[in-house]
């Protein structure tokens, strides 16, 4: 029988986890049920509940998602059904139809996909699938929420009579309206409605001339509202019929309620089932948010949490965009108790709370954020003493309260207990408190309990080092910056870094040295040795990480080189094949050319045909017989190789063309021609001088004659001096 005290749940912030899960519920009853979740006492039931959540979580990742389970609470309706001679209103009946449809759809779905959700299907089998409630309500109430006319013969008859009377009322009222309007007794608005009755808007001065019942008047008193005498009788008859209709509706609702009362146990089951589904769904959604899984649950006394996250810290850091550091911790029959030491603010308490919170979450049928290779066992008791436990109500000091807690622990602890104690032994004189804490720890050890404690006491660290089934552990610190690394390592106690932290925070070295002299030299040496070992471990960790990173990098580079080499080899083979193929074609072309020359000389056709046939036979003997499919593949490959070669040739051509373009000598700028310059025509020999330049043309004097030529056709021989 599993029993976990409320105080332990409070210490481990279990109720905060419940609040986070409750945010994922979609019904009021589901939310209340989540907040009421506690560790499950019966192991078989706990394992079933864990399977339910795990199966629901799996539905998020496949195409067969479980249908929506939302419903309106029907607790009030269930209470009314338990009371005889009561009847349900239309809205309540519609809620019952809705919950029936929802429950039926989920039960049918789980039956259809029982291979995917075997445990949920098994749980849903006690829920009866019936459409009786839905059919009976649908027979009476339409989709607009009104009682149907044919719900009973009497109601049908009454509503027909009511419709006839309404017709008579409208007819008689219209007649009176037209008559009095013609006599100009009515106001401009002519008519109005008072108490759901049509009335004439009569001018106050004519009220005695209009026969009927006065139903009221306007605020100014200028209008009097009168129901015509002709409609009064019909209105009274209508009231009577409407009363009878109301009575008939109540009678129908009572009969329907009496029928549904037979299904009261089933309706209770529906609500309980859908509430349970809401709780399971909320747990699964929360598990998805924190990347939680169902680890292996072992019957051996073993707790192995690999890469475990504190769920609340994970959520907080995720919202801030900060990293959360996971912890790996193991307890077993050979290593039952872990003593975590080291400086404050290094993560000792969080590690302790992570283990405790994940254990109570699991024992409350919640999935936990750990690596899939983790393994856990179940404990009958989880005991905790975490945080400042000064009791103001009982006028107890912290130490007195902690002694009361230790007394409770001594009575309850056994080999199926997990105890979690933060700052074990503090609150009293260090020497005496440490000695008493050591004695308590020995008792817990002798009773074969599992546990984790955090402490600064050296005697507890020494005890953990001496006893075979107890182990020291520490939270790593950066020895240079003295910043926490939030990583738990086992097998070695942690230094408190008392003097180092003091020095880092600006305390003068002279005062630190004076403090060192005040305490036993052996203790300082012991703490210094631990600090030195811790620094060495930290260096080794860094070296190991660096080596692993380099090895990974080298492996990656080697794989890349191998891949590149394989590609180059493949291309070389392809080009060799292409070259061989081209050489063969050249050889064949040469042979055919020789035969052609020979035929040209001797004109012996038979000899030519024989030589050609022999050449073809020789070539075919070299070929391997391949299928049409292989031939197509070979041609495609050759085409691809040729395309690649063509592309490369094209690239080389483009490069050569670009280089050649760069080599083109840029022509010097053309000189501006002036009058008196000696010039000649392009490709001409005769030289003349320019006499006149006008509109892009020049008159050139050659001595014996002159000519008019475009300036563009002339080139300078000698400029005028």
Structure notes:
With 721 residues, the chain is α/β, with parallel strands linked by helices. The protein has 5 domains: 44-130 and 263-289, no CATH class; 151-254, MutS, DNA mismatch repair protein, Chain A, domain 3 (Orthogonal Bundle), CATH 1.10.1420; 302-518, 3-Layer(aba) Sandwich (Rossmann fold), CATH 3.40.50.300; 564-659; 678-718. The protein contains 21 helices and 19 strands. The strands form 5 sheets. It has a 6-stranded mixed beta sheet with strand order 10-11-12-8-13-14, with helices on both faces. Strands 18-17-16-15-19 form a 5-stranded antiparallel beta sheet, with no helix packed on it. A 4-stranded antiparallel beta sheet has the order 1-2-4-3. Helix 6 crosses helix 7 (118-124). The chain is extended and about 140 Å long.
Q: What would a concise description of this structure say?
A:
With 721 residues, the protein is α/β, with parallel strands linked by helices.
């Amino acid at each position: 029988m599993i029993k976990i005290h409320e105080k332990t749940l409070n210490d481990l912030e279990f109720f905060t986890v419940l609040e986070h899960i409750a945010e994922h519920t979609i019904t009021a009853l589901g939310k209340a049920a989540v907040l009421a979740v506690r560790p499950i006492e019966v192991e078989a039931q706990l394992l079933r509940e864990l399977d339910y959540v795990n199966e629901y979580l799996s539905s998020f990742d496949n195409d067969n998602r479980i249908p929506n389970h939302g419903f309106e609470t029907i607790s009030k309706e269930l209470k009314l059904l338990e009371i005889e001679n009561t009847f349900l209103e239309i809205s309540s009946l519609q809620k019952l139809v809705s919950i029936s449809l929802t429950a039926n759809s989920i039960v049918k779905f789980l039956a259809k996909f029982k291979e995917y959700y075997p445990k949920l299907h098994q749980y849903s089998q006690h829920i009866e699938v019936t459409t009786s409630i839905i059919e009976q309500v649908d027979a009476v109430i339409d989709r607009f929420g009104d009682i149907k006319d044919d719900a009973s013969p009497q109601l049908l008859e009454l509503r027909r009579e009511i419709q006839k009377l309404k017709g008579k009322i409208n007819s008689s009222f219209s007649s009176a309206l037209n008559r009095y309007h013609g006599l100009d007794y009515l106001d401009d608005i002519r008519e109005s409605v008072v108490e759901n009755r049509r009335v004439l808007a009569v001018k106050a001065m004519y009220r005695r001339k209009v026969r009927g019942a006065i139903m009221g008047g306007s605020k100014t008193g200028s209008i009097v509202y009168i129901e015509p005498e002709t409609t009064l009788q019909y209105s009274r008859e209508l009231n009577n019929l409407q009363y009878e209709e109301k009575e008939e509706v109540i009678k129908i609702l009572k009969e329907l309620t009496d029928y549904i009362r037979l299904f009261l146990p089933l309706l209770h089951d529906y609500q309980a089932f859908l509430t349970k589904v809401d709780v399971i769904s909320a747990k699964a959604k929360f598990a998805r948010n924190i990347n939680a899984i169902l680890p292996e649950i072992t019957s051996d006394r073993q707790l192995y949490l690999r890469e475990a996250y504190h769920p609340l810290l994970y959520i907080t850091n995720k919202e801030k965009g900060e990293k959360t550091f996971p912890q790996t911790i193991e307890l077993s029959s050979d290593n039952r108790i872990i003593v975590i030491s080291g400086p404050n603010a290094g993560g000792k308490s969080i590690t302790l709370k992570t283990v405790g919170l994940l254990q109570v979450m699991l024992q409350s049928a919640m999935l936990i954020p750990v690596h899939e290779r983790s393994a856990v066992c179940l404990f009958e008791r989880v005991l905790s003493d975490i945080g400042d436990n000064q009791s103001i109500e009982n006028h107890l000091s912290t130490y007195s309260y902690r002694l009361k807690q230790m007394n409770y622990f001594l009575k309850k602890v056994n080999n199926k207990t997990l105890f979690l104690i933060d700052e074990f032994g503090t609150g009293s004189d260090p020497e005496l408190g440490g000695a008493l804490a050591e004695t308590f720890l020995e008792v817990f050890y002798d009773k074969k309990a599992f546990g984790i404690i955090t402490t600064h006491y050296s005697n507890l660290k020494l005890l953990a080092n001496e006893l075979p089934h107890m182990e020291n552990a520490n939270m790593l610190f950066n020895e240079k910056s003295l910043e926490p690394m939030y990583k738990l390592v086992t097998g070695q106690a942690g230094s408190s870094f008392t003097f180092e932290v003091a020095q880092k925070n600006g305390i003068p070295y002279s005062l630190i040295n004076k403090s060192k002299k005040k305490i036993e030299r052996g203790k300082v040496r012991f703490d210094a040795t631990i600090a030195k070992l811790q620094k060495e471990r930290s260096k080794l960790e860094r070296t190991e990480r660096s080596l692993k990173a380099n090895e990974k990098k080298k492996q990656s580079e080697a794989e890349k080189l191998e891949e590149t080499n394989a590609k180059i080899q493949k291309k070389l083979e392809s080009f060799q094949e292409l070259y061989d193929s081209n050489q063969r074609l050249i050889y064949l072309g040469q042979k055919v050319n020789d035969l052609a020359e020979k035929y040209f000389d001797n004109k012996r056709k038979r000899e030519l045909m024989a030589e050609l046939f022999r050449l073809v036979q020789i070539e075919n003997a070299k070929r391997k017989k391949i299928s049409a499919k292989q031939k197509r593949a070979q041609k495609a490959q050759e085409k691809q190789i040729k395309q690649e070669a063509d592309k490369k040739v094209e690239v080389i051509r483009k490069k050569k063309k670009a280089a050649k373009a760069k080599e083109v000598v840029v022509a010097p700028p053309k000189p501006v021609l002036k009058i008196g310059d000696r010039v000649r025509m392009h490709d001409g020999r005769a030289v003349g001088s320019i006499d006149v330049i006008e509109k892009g043309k020049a008159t050139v004097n050659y001595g014996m004659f002159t000519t008019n030529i475009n300036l563009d056709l002339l080139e300078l021989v000698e400029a005028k001096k």
